[in-house]
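Journal club prep — side note

Before the paper discussion, L.F. wants everyone to see what a predicted structure for a comparable chain looks like in token form. Sequence:
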Amino acid sequence: MYDLDAAPSELNRPKGPDPQRACVNCQNPASPSDQTVLRPRTLSETDAAILQLLAAGSSSVKIATHLHMSRQAVDYHIHAMLRSLKAVNRPGLVSKAYTLGIMVVDSWPPRVWPDCVG
């Protein structure tokens, strides 16, 4: 598991692929030089709007008011996204969306990549 012949700075790193070069959902994971990410088209336009507002910290009531929906409809969409992305709770849903590359990393307010909406 650990390379004992390595330099002291390398001793605490486990052998195997470099975690900083690892990619999620790549076209060819065996080739780390090609880091093209394939984002899943898993969200409807309504789901994307709800996810963006949820990631910004809005409550179900505020999301419902903003999108002119009922609170129950917002909760339905959130629970459907929880199931489809296999997340446990709302913070987990947002975290999973960032991990899967569904959401843009360096933006505020949070945004969903347009190619993930379909």
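L.F.'s comment for the group: The radius of gyration is 18 Å. Keep this in mind when we get to the figures.
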